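Subject: 4-alpha-glucanotransferase structure
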Amino acid sequence: MDAISQLFYLHGIGYEFTKYTGEQVFFSEDTRKRALQCCGVDTNNEAQIAQLNYDLDASNWLGLVANVSLVEQQSPLLKIKIDERQQNLPVNITVPSLNINITLNNLYNLAVTGEYYLHGVRYIELAVPINEMPIGYHDAAVKVGEQLARTQIWSVPDQVFQVEDVKRTGLSIQLYTLKNKAQLGVGDFNDLLELTALCGTKNMDYILLNPLHLLFANIPERASPYSPNSRALLNPLYISVALSADAQNNTQLNVLMDSDDVIDLLNATDQFINYHKVSQVKYALFKALYNHFELTASNERREAFDKFCNENLSTLSTLNSTEPAFDYYLQWQATVQLALCQQSCKDQGMAIGLINDLAVGCAGDGAEFYNQQALFSEGANVGAPPDPWAEAGQNWGLPALNPQSLQHNNYQYYRSLIRANMQSVGGLRIDHVMAIRRLWWCFETNGHQDGCYVYYPFEHLLAILKIESHINQSIVIGEDLGIVPPEVKHALSTSGIFSNSLFYFEKHHDGEFLSVDDLAPHCLLMIANHDVPPFSGWWCHDDLNIKQQYELINKSEYEQQKQQRIQEQHKLLRFINSHSNKPELVLNSNATDVYAQLALCLAGSQSGLFALQIDDLDEQKYPVNIPGTDKEYPNWRRVLTHSSKDIFTKNAPLLAAIDSIRKG
């Protein structure tokens, strides 16, 4: 293997992949070199390449232990690398925080788990049995003879945190779409609080949320929750003014509520959110809340705020705010209200409660990127290779993390990110979970668009998910739609991570839908998600009409897609009629009746989690997002037509029937 090929391998630059068509695609050397250049490597500098190869390979055998040592919790073995001539030396391992002190007279008779030859010397990796440790991260010191090294032992469970293995039903929502009781234009935590009670009455066990990440207050129309300012902070627009203690006896707030701007918003009946107007009004109200807190807060509340700021200072400080106290206050209020909603879930007896959603990346001009810029590549964005829904591939415009830099400070960045998104919830859905194994990088090579897969430290990132899920008592769902490497599917399954299936895509090779009995058991099963039209819109072809209306497709494409849709509808009818004992449905059947029968069929699956989308229960025709569009269609703005209470009242018989099937 030549030096550049070795560096491709050690740096995680992919060599080939299998396209959705089954074709094996190989990346050119120019493409792979460009990926390395995005990581700051001068591919024409032979000395730099040689040094990097040494640093990423040989040098790992010259220290006793790695910076991070992955240790299975139930059969703990610490891997130590030594010159084989050192086997006669005594060994001492200490973990001060756990009062562990292990001494061995020598290293003979231990399992050799690896070897490496350097300058004629054989180095060996030995598995040293150590004490069982609590799940988590433990600083340790290792001494062999007079050589001392330090490592952080990660005590890793076999699986992520689990709830009792029974079939559970929940609701999938985009929080901002909820009909806002306060009539301030965007669904908020008070609306979520009401929804938790409604779900509790129907024996639901969870509410799956959209990402609640911080967006851009100064550019409110940047509405996509999947292109956030920071994934470790919350979007203040979800704060309910009415839920805040600082709304009580607040003269400034009361005056603002009578202002023309607020009254205009209260009287608005828009189908799509005007984020500029909503943000302008809500931030004025937030300032009134903050001013009231500054003037009247009790010592107890001030101490609670100070405690929040101290505990979260490293994350809060990334805001780079001109008004830090105000922005910290908003993060505190959002966190308090989210926790209140999760507590309500628990009070309702919901086994899981809220499930958060972690976007695959952050915006390239946001707080997360600027504060962690050294961890990111230069000139590479993440996206997806060609697939049936995007033949040209996709560039999501999110900067790509450098897989080598990610290891900085014992993966502190990723650990903090996962922990932040598991706060005050009972579960975490990870968008595009394949990212912990590999990501498709998009970049320019010699002036044209190019891309390849780049691989990440899979074992360590998976270990973080396992550890943090137990620390935070949070289940984990991995969104694994698209091209998924077999090793990722296997690892997710054995790690107890739920996969995520959309019924629309669960088909045999002949295009017919899978039988209910063939749907995956350890899975979050959904009919649709935010990237797929709501069912009523899909059945009535409204999504195609909308695409034509917004000039996303021409008349010829419309007719072609309409015929394809009719074929899909026939397949769906065959699926439903083969699983249902109700009168047969036909192509002109009402969308509501078809959806109800489909939901009842899927309720009978063995899938551990079955989610109904509130958009479908509301019989929405407009999607919240049309993939591949930005300004063409008002993505992430459409609100629900009816209140949550009215939606649950209308669907009460269906929800009761689904609950009976799931619990039966």
